[in-house]
């Protein structure tokens, strides 16, 4: 159970860091060669590409909150469902993005993250990405 407690704590730190805009802590939660897969485009990206994407998101979305977190750990990883909520900086509009992720964890770091979004929610979330 100690491993699963450590995984639970790491997952909590990861999402707390993103809420706080701490991209370096997020980045350090992954191994250097970690793979991050998105169901909406079926691409695998790196932790550094993910850090770049989240840096942009942090700049565009204020009052970020990973709400309704439902975290389940298992030997070697975790599954989390949550709703990313916030407000767009350019017009104060509300954003809401439900998500489910599955992560493989080795030695306290994420080696693989599979991210599942509904494409309609992603389109609404990204609608003002360049605003």
Describe the structure.
- β1 and β2 form a beta hairpin.
- The protein has 131 residues and is of the alpha+beta class.
- The model has no long low-confidence stretch (mean pLDDT 92).
- It contains 4 helices and 6 strands, in the order ααββαββββα.
Which series of helices and strands comes N to C?
HHEEHEEEEH
- Report the oligomer: single chain
How many alpha or pi helices?
A: 4
CA-CA gap between termini: 46 Å
Mean pLDDT: 92
CATH class: Alpha Beta
The total number of structural domains is 1
- Whole-angstrom Rg: 14 Å
The CATH topology turns out to be Nuclear Transport Factor 2, Chain: A
Structural class label:
alpha+beta
Structure, briefly:
By secondary structure, this protein is α+β, with helices and mostly antiparallel strands. Helices cover 36% and strands 44% of the residues.
Describe this protein with a few key phrases.
alpha+beta; 4 helices; 131 residues; Nuclear Transport Factor 2, Chain: A; 6-stranded mixed beta sheet
List the helices and strands and how they pair.
Blueprint: H1 2-20, H2 23-28, E1 30-38, E2 44-45, H3 47-60, E3 61-74, E4 77-88, E5 94-106, E6 109-116, H4 119-126
Parallel strand pairs: 1-6
Antiparallel strand pairs: 1-2, 3-4, 4-5, 5-6
